[in-house]
Amino acid sequence: MAISLPHTRQRSSSPSCRTYRLVDQQGEPHPILDDLYESLDAAWSEALHWWQEEFGPVQGPVGIGVEVSTLSGEWRTLRYPGT
Questions:
Q1: Its pTM surpasses 0.90
Q2: What is the 3-state secondary structure (H, E, C) of 39-73?
Q3: Chain segment 29-83, per-residue pLDDT in tens
Q4: Which of 15, 29, 49, 55 has the fewest CB neighbours in a 10 Å radius?
Q5: Cβ–Cβ contacts within 10 Å for residue 18, how many?
Q6: Residue 10's pLDDT band (boundaries 50, 70, 90)?
Q7: Is the separation of the CB atoms in 35 and 2 below 8 Å?
Q8: What is the CA radius of gyration of the chain?
Q9: Which strands, in side-by-side order, build the sheet including 65-69?
Q10: Position 2 confidence tier, pLDDT thresholds 50, 70, 90
Q11: Which residue, among 21, 23, 32, 26, has the nearest Cα to 69 in the 3D structure?
C-alpha cells in the first residue's frame, strides 16, 4: 500500500527512514504509480498488482523498476525495469 509523504529532497529524520518509488523503462517516476512506498516489498507488490491488471499474469520481465531514497535526498536504483 502506498503512503503519502511530503515530496522533499532533503530528509532530516532518522537514517533508517527510507522511502521507495517505482520508475518506468527510462528510469523516470512511473507515470501512473508515482507515489512513495514504505518498503521495497510494498512498492514491488503494488507494481506487480498493477502490471497484472494491465497485462495479465506475469510471464516475463516487468517493465517497472524500484528506487530507494538516500540520506542525501537522491534516489538509488534497487531493481532495474525489465529484470
A1: no
A2: CHHHHHHHHHHHHHHHHCCCCCCCCCEEEEECCCC
A3: 999 999 999 999 999 999 999 999 999 988 889 999 999 999 999 999 999 999 8
A4: 15
A5: 17
A6: very low
A7: yes
A8: 13
A9: 2-3, 36-37, 20-23, 65-69, 75-79
A10: low
A11: 21
Phi, psi of 40 (to 5 degrees): -60, -45
**Cell, residue 76:** 538509488
Nearest to 50 by CA among 27, 31, 76, 74: 31
Q: Specify whether the CB–CB gap between 68 and 75 falls below 8 A.
A: yes
Q: Any idea which residue has 531514497 for its cell? A: 69
Could you identify the residue written with the cell 522511502? 19
Cell of residue 52, nine digits: 497484472
User: Where are the domains positioned within the chain?
Assistant: 18-79
